[in-house]
Inverse folding.
């Protein structure tokens, strides 16, 4: 069953502007790809409505704030990912290098520790392309 | 708001392809758009839009391929998967 959450564009605009100002005043950069970034901001607002907190739009939240506190934006992994990859996991934030056009962003590996392991023992035989 | 599950039509149907994503994730959106632009026929699952048992089952399916349970995860022929927005790896895996 799907839920129907519709975020008005003006709410996306308002949070986008707030995050941009906050980022610039604290030495961070929002991703300059506005369409991409506004999509993430909309995702944050959807998650706020769903769960009551702005969890990372590119991670599956549990709905339990205590379990998800590490992935509430800005997540605990942002700085390490910015240093290693030039962007945080969802790419809401990018490094100065990326902002200057000296580095391209990409979809990066998940740094958050896994919850558990597959109970289906065949997984070791399978092929994964990360 | 997208549907939680869907079957996306396409002319490239050589592989049974399942896309697991989050409706709020822009890398998932790009991956879906890439598969659609290449004419790949695939099943789509937005795990964040599922509830209860259905969601738990989808998470378990993703975990079997990708212990980080990260998105997007694209599974092909129940034998290989590509994690993240990786057009070149998808092309290689799908023979595009």
């Amino acid at each position: 069953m799907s839920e129907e959450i519709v975020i008005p564009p003006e709410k996306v605009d308002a949070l986008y502007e707030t995050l941009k100002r906050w980022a610039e005043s604290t030495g961070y950069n929002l991703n300059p790809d506005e369409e991409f970034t506004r999509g993430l901001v909309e995702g944050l607002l959807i998650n706020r409505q769903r769960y009551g907190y702005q969890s990372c739009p590119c991670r599956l939240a549990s709905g339990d704030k205590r379990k998800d506190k590490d992935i509430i934006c800005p997540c605990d992994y942002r700085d390490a990912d910015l240093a290693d990859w030039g962007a945080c996991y969802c790419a809401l934030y990018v490094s100065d290098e990326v902002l200057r056009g000296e580095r391209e962003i990409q979809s990066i590996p998940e740094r958050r520790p896994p919850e558990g392991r597959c109970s289906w023992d065949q997984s070791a035989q399978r092929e994964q392309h990360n | 708001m997208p549907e939680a599950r869907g079957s996306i039509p396409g002319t490239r149907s050589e592989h049974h392809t399942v896309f697991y994503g989050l409706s709020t994730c822009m890398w998932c959106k790009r991956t879906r758009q890439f598969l659609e632009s290449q004419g790949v026929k695939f099943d789509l699952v937005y795990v964040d839009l599922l509830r209860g048992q259905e969601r738990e089952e989808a998470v378990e399916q993703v975990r079997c391929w990708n212990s980080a349970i990260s998105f997007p995860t694209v599974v092909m022929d129940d034998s290989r998967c590509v994690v993240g927005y990786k057009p070149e790896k998808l092309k290689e895996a799908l023979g595009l």
Notes: DSSP finds three helices and five strands in chain B. The radius of gyration of chain B is 12 Å.
